[in-house]
Amino acid sequence: MKKILIPTDFTVDSLVLLKNALNTCKGQKLDVVLAYGAHLDSAICDLLFYSKKNHIQKLTNKEFNEGKAILTNRYKDQINSLSIELFIGTTQSAFMSFVEGLNISQIYATHNNQDLQINQKTGFCLYKYFKKSDLDFVKLDYKTSHSKTTQGVLSKLLTS
Amino acid sequence: MTTQAKIVLLLSSIFLTHTAIFSIFIYYSISNYAYNDFYKRLEIRAITTAKIELENVQDINAVKEIRLEYLEKLPDEKIEFIDLSTTDLKNESNNLNIPKSFINDILNNERAFYKKNETYYSGIRYKTIGKDYMVVASAQNYYSTHHIVYLRNLLILALVVSILLIGIISYLFSRKVMLPVRRIIKEMKKISTENLNYRLYVPTDNNELASLTSTFNTMLNRLETSFESQKNFVSNASHELNTPLTSIIGEADVSLSKTRSPEEYIKTLNTILCEAEKLDKKTKALLFLAQSGYDGKTQKFKTLRIDELILEVKDTVGKIYPNVKIKIDFSLLPENSEKLKITGNDQLLHLAISNILLNACKYNLRNDVTIALAVSNKNVIISVKDQGIGIPESEIPYIYDPFFRASNTREYEGYGIGLPLARNVVYQHNGFLEINSEENIGTTVEIKLPTRKF
Lengths: 160, 454
Known about the structure:
The structure holds 2 protein chains of 2 kinds.
Chain A: E1 2-7, H1 15-24, E2 30-38, H2 44-48, H3 52-59, H4 62-74, E3 79-87, H5 92-102, E4 106-109, E5 123-124, H6 127-132, E6 136-139, H7 153-158
Parallel strand pairs in A: 1-2, 1-4, 2-3, 4-6
Antiparallel strand pairs in A: 2-5
Chain B: H1 3-54, H2 57-70, E1 78-83, H3 89-96, H4 100-109, E2 111-116, E3 119-128, E4 131-140, H5 142-190, H6 207-257, H7 262-293, E5 302-305, H8 306-320, E6 326-329, E7 341-344, H9 346-362, E8 364-375, E9 379-388, H10 418-428, E10 432-438, E11 442-450
Parallel strand pairs in B: 6-8
Antiparallel strand pairs in B: 1-4, 2-3, 3-4, 5-7, 8-9, 9-11, 10-11
Helix pairs in contact in B: 1-2, 1-5, 6-7, 6-10, 8-9, 9-10
């Protein structure tokens, strides 16, 4: 089964990328990995008691989880598994090991690395790693509406 | 008896009993200790005196020293020696004013104590080589006559003072505890049929009262919903029926004002028929509105399919606004249709969603009105989007107030009841209503309802 990687910034807008990727691969069953480049805390106590689940919980919010559930329910047949992974390395080879460890065969992302709004304090953009890697890169369109009328979870997912 | 009085009485009696028992315990412990202490002192005097008088001369100097240095003379101190071998005990008991039982005790147990009024007696049996004596020491206990009496009086006085103090404190305490309840009663008195939208303030620091007030607020929500839906029906009915009736009457009047050609009469009759049909449709829709409002029984929740409900609502609203194109977006519908089931009252939900959709159609300016549906793990989400006049930003906080109409709705008819009604119904179903709007751009309403729990 194909395993694909889609970058995320834990906003509902970024889930539109997931929707577009699934629409592009109609008919195929996929394993999806939502990847986020995260900064690790440098305090010893946090490193000692580090838990990936808690880290992800701190980064995600209710709207994101709701949007994720909507898409999981809608594309149930297509999504074999959907997981969130944090990339905490800094070098390109670390990224390659990350990708190899997860068995990723394709990356679905936009060409513009400004699309995702990543909070620089907690994370970083993965786009430069995508560029240098030799994995299959599939370009996606990314259209979000930032108008005041599309603030709810469903309306954000329905744009584009 | 009020709860407040009960609290005061209960608290006071508990504290009083406790203090009384405490005082009694202290008093008796101290008296007991004082008695025993005194008896022991008498006993030591008896023993030392016996030693001094009845032993050989050599040993007694040390004892005499001890006696003089450490054992001061007690008030009314008397030491009696009774030679058991020679004296007759019966007479002795009369002479010394001590009972026979006391003497027998000394004989049997080697030592005994006895108290008569304020005089304390301590007796020992002193046996030595060749002599068998009974020594009885007696004295007045100053301590018991004065100090313990003082203690007793002091404790009684303290008890009386503490009754007063405890009474005052428990009264203040009961007032403080009942204060939130009194406040709630005062606030509840303000609620009447005119201001059913008033809600009680939910305290954040008291769980029991918070749940009481929020339950009361929920009840008020339900009351308000049914009230409003009745009012809604009456005002809607009178208006909606009025318009076509007016045009029917107008047409008939004009037509009858003079003799006209058959073609003109046919035209008039066609118009009347058309308006009557419109009237018929509207009456049916209004009747439905009434059914949801006039439900005298308690709301029964049953399982229903949200997608079917949405299609019904689209039909209903489509009849009232046949010119507006209502698009249904089911693109994010879950693949498992079991997830589309929710528990609720279908008539109330129909009322709420149709109100939202009616607003979208009424205030729409261009393009279509879209209604979309999707399901997440916890909620069913319905989104109604229009590209119409929108709501001015400064007025958004007031849109849920009954009868409030935004400033840009002057050219549109309405009573300002649909949205508060819809919100109350959604809250009744433990859901959320979220409105995002921009003036002249459009409005999007999202309704979230919890999915059916298994």
